[in-house]
Amino acid sequence: PTGEVSMHLAEGSIYGEPVERLTSELSFNGEEVELKNIQMAHYEANVTGGATYNLSSHAYHFSVARSNFDLKRVSTLQGARIAVTGGADFTAEGSGTLEAPKLNAAIHLHDLTFDQERAGDFTINAVSQGPELRITGQSQFEQADLKIDGNVHLRGDWPADVYFRFHQLELDAIFRTYLRGAVNGHSRADGEVHMV
User: Fold this and answer.
1) Higher per-residue pLDDT: 106 or 7
2) Residues with Cβ < 8 Å from 101, sequence gap 6 or more?
3) I need a surface site. Which of 14, 16, 38, 123 has the fewest CB within 10 A?
4) Rounded to whole angstroms, how far apart are CA atoms 107 and 92?
5) H or E, element range at 126
6) C-alpha 174: how far from chain center
7) Global pTM?
8) What is the model's pLDDT at position 181?
9) Of 140, 151, 132, 147, the residue nearest 191 (C-alpha)
């Protein structure tokens, strides 16, 4: 069977987040399903992309990009004890099968603030190598350095082995929130956290 459908969503929501506009073309050609020309507007952010999936072989390919995303619009970040603001750009490409996925993604967070204190920019990259997802991150903070380096196994419970290494990382927002005035002045830390 073959066919094509144009989709248009206006003033809707996805997972509780408002979507101003979503358009795409859905086509069927035998065992292959394709979503092409995906265009979505979420507040000031724009999302573009496309995807294909083969129903018999389970092979897929996708590409998506999101730009100009305001972190103030993420309710879970704003409902957290330490408010996070800034912007984000995101690109991701994937291919393979559900049993052997391949992923290459990059997130660029810019003008980050934690509890109204400016930190700077942060870039995260994720690249799959077989069943392992390699994650790296590097800050471009004004007065501190934060690096992320590790792996997530893309099988079972997705066990992780990730290091967070930091130098002169400001802890003021954490102390204000959790120690409620017990510590005054500026506090910075050097160290490493290993998450397994």
Assistant:
1) 106
2) 94, 128, 154
3) 16
4) 9
5) strand 117-129
6) 23
7) 0.80
8) 65
9) 147
